[in-house]
Amino acid sequence: MTGPAISVAMSVYNGERFLPEAIESVLDQTFSDFEFLIVDDGSGDATASILRDYEARDSRVRAIVRENRGLVASLNELLSCASAPIIARMDADDICRPERFDRQFAFLTNNPDHGVVGSWSEDIGEDGAPLFRTGDDHPLTHEDVLSAIAQGRHVICHPAAMFRREVVLSVGGYHAAFRHCEDYDLWLRLASVTKLANLPERLLRYRRYDGQVSTRHATEQQIGTAVAQLAWQERQAGRPDPTACLSHLPAIDELDALFGKEGISRRVGEQVALALIYSAAAMRGQGFDLLVQHLRDGGRRHGMWRTVLRLLRFGEPARALRLAMTLAAAPAR
Q1: What confidence tens digit (pLDDT) does each residue in 202-228 have?
Q2: Backbone φ/ψ region at 129: left (φ over 0), alpha (ψ -120 to 50), beta
Q3: Which N-terminal residues, if any, form the signal peptide (predicted)?
Q4: CA 177 to chain centre
Q5: Contacts for 241-244: CB closer than 8 Å, 24+ residues apart
Q6: Residues 235, 215: contact at Cβ < 8 Å?
Q7: How many CB atoms lie within 10 A of CB 287?
Q8: Per-residue confidence (pLDDT) for residue 298, from 0 to 100
Q9: DSSP, residue by residue, 193-205
């Protein structure tokens, strides 16, 4: 007997709120030849009981309930446990369109030189209602993906990705150092060994809300993204990747030493600070301190007075005042 064509990989941590809808959207796929591997990463809510219930109802579901180890460890565990050559990623708060697996599996079957295929997505809110979408859609062809990487833009929506297991294992799977942007680092490493693409169909409904990981860890995510881009540039230039063996990323002010170049820390600090000014969570946390330090170092101030007003809208009058005082005192550049 042969195994399933696809292994669906999902990691859940305290995900009871949206979990049933996410699971149902996978079980309702028009493509049915898959196993559904779900790690409960030490949840303290009803996640485990929900998984056990689905496991009893559908033989394709396999629940792995254990202590908390973090998302990167969970994803690498899912890669190890998978019995299919193709992995379909899925998150516990999103919703698949019924034809998602059919479309992506057909693409990988017809394009053996491609190791990863994603799709466009539709943004939804907590209640599942569509949200107004801003920004560009993900790039379609591999050439478009390479251009997006060079410009520092998004490449593939992680929960919308389907990829060949062996090619991901060949580059070492997910790297622990890039927590909260582990997918972006993976796509950049894979772009050197295989082709990546996206389908111009909205095959995933991507949920946006205040409690999601990308919102709660926006600062760490932006720092990791900037470092992943630097590591990609090193590899493109034929130099060793200084992040390859790291278990965690160093502080921003240690990046000059890591990459052996002056000015890296300042450049990353500016990139991260300017990327976070629209995030309420970041401006209420470490991101605000990075912005203030960026300005004190003589960093770019264009548009920063609008950030003062934005802080007031975020309900942070004290930080708005502190930023205004910093702008008044900081040297212009």
Answers
A1: 999 999 987 666 666 889 999 999 999
A2: beta
A3: none
A4: 13
A5: 243/175, 243/177, 243/178, 244/175
A6: no
A7: 23
A8: 86
A9: TSEEEEEEEEEEE
Q: Which residues pair with 33 in a beta bridge?
A: none
Could you tell me which residues come within 8 angstroms of residue 116 by beta carbon, excluding any fewer than 6 positions away? 156, 161, 162, 163, 164, 167, 187, 190, 194, 195, 196, 197
One-letter identity of residue 9: A
Q: Are 223 and 272 in contact (CB under 8 A)?
A: yes
The model carries a pTM of 0.92
Beta-bridge mates of residue 96: 204
Helix 19-27 and helix 47-57: axis angle, to 10°? 20
Q: Which pLDDT score is estimated for 215?
A: 66
Burial of 181: CB neighbours in 10 Å, binned 0-12, 13-18, 19+: buried
Give pLDDT tens digits for 276-322. 999 898 999 999 999 999 899 888 888 899 999 999 999 999 999 99
Domain 6-209 grouped into CATH 3.90.550.10: yes
Angle at 269 between CA 266 and CA 271, to 5 degrees: 110
User: How would you list the strands of the sheet with 86-89, edge to edge?
Assistant: 61-66, 34-41, 6-12, 86-89, 162-164, 114-124, 195-207, 95-96
Note the maximum CA span of the chain: 72
Number of Cβ within 10 Å of residue 210's Cβ equals 9
Ranges of the chain whose pLDDT falls below 70: 1, 211-216, 330-333
Burial class (CB in 10 A: 0-12, 13-18, 19+), 281: middle
Amino acid sitting at position 314? F
Indicate the domain borders of the chain. 6-209, 216-329
The answer for residues whose C-beta is within 8 angstroms of residue 88's C-beta and 6 or more apart is 6, 7, 8, 9, 34, 100, 101, 104, 161, 162
Any idea what the Cα angle at residue 240 is, between residues 238 and 241, rounded to 5°?
Answer: 115
